Amino acid sequence: MPLIPGFVARRRRDAAALAALVTCSNVLIGQDLAAADGMPTPPVPAPQLDWRPCVRGSEFDCATAKVPLDYGHPDGRAIQLAVIKRKATGPGRRIGTLFFNPGGPGGPGTVQMPQNYRSFPREVRERFDIVSWDPRGVGNSTAVNCFAGPREAADWRASKAAGFPVGAQERTAFIAAYQDLARRCQRRDPELLRHVSTADTARDLDQLRRAVGESQLTYQGISYGTMLGATYANLFPGKVRAMVLDSTIDPQAWTHDASDHAPQLTTFLRMGSDRSAAATLDQFLTLCGSATTGHCAFSAGGTKATRDKFDQLMRRLRKRPVGMWTYAGTVGDVVNSLYVVHPGWTELAGRLQDLWRGRVPRRSPLPPAPPVPHPQPYLGEEQAAAVVCAESPNPRDPRAYHALEEASAARAGDAGRFWTWATAGCAPWPAVAANRYRGPWNEPTAHPVLVVGTTYDPATPYKDAQAMAEELANARLLTHHGYGHTALINPSSCIKAHESRYLIDGVLPPAGTTCRPDTPPFSRSARKPIGGVATGGGGMPRFVRMGRGADPT
Q1: The pTM is what?
Q2: Half-sphere exposure of 455 (CA within 13 A, CB side)
Q3: pLDDT at 30 > cutoff 50
């Protein structure tokens, strides 16, 4: 679930890389595509996948899949999906294919899977080909793009405040910017806007499963990827071999309980992202205050003193930004930096300390681009909005957001302001998904699902993991008593061991199993993760752009 008012968790500079996916088969779908939402299901041939090295010498193979824009009319317009694969590394030990979705919505799998590849357990990498793709509407697939070029997109981004609006003048400009975006998107490709829903992508996933010759799906989804997994599990319950849902969304919160009544709250306020981010920030300040400045640069020598220092810094930034670092932009940076504990929390503490001293923080270096043909595709906010706004109800009156912001701030502080405005673009959004899936969520699956929830997650609350495990017909909850967004990029050997045993052998952890992170925050032994930091590891809103045209991250 980030980073300037929009939706997709990734560092700006449009940083990310992408590429392509799977093998081939010409079998036609019969009842395989039976849709729980009543959508017509004519036979659709599986995509032909011509795997080739993504670039010369790359360990990753790329392909392009062709799928129908509208599965109800498969002979109509076709779109392309960029797909990527890393073959199983254990000679003679391959089990099959593990499909991976990195979240968002809007996460480009052809970039994020290579960046996060070594975060998967070694045993899983040995036994499975790992395949990911840029979902329809995203990145190097047929993408939602509402601008004529990069300059036009940059000018639009510069027309509104970083993070969220502060004051009546910024709110007016913020709302006007999203009204302008909606008009642009409606003019560019209104047909595509109606066909980038989670249910559409779930059908694409089933096509990719068939294309690689798997009789059932093995899948791991993080963040928004858990909604995709839950949707697939209920559209194709008989096709579930194994499914790991890490940092989950409550499907009832996402769909507004499948109600047609106007929502009172935004998607993320229904989910409780504001409260969860506030609780995670409190843990950050508590643990920082308990550490020395050698381990946490922002420490004031005690928990209360460090919390007070943070509050004082926020008040100071409201009155006087430090360079391009405004109050709202800094809050956005704080929330997004809580996603990855190592090195995110340590680097965040350093930036806060720089701001405390009145110095402009230095940018954290981005990880190297993965070996794919197009590592920096266009990833504009409209790509996430096309999914969230078209299928998850949000208030349509832009004037409602300020009151919601104040109510959320009363319960969740600064983080509440950030999460309230994260879906402001939905107020004027011009499209409703043609094929929304809104339940039921309890179709009995061929095999049980493993749900992983982290107790201090700044985007997807632990209670949402509990809700997902209860909603699904046959699921087991594995609790990560840790911090950050997704256990995949906040490592726990305990979590990885349970996931490996489940994915390989189908063995669930015992009911009530809990795990802890390998390395606590601000620890001397903290190590940097291998990849995934540049794209946020599957978050939902957007990365924070500080001021106009600058990017501190």
Answers
A1: 0.90
A2: 10
A3: no
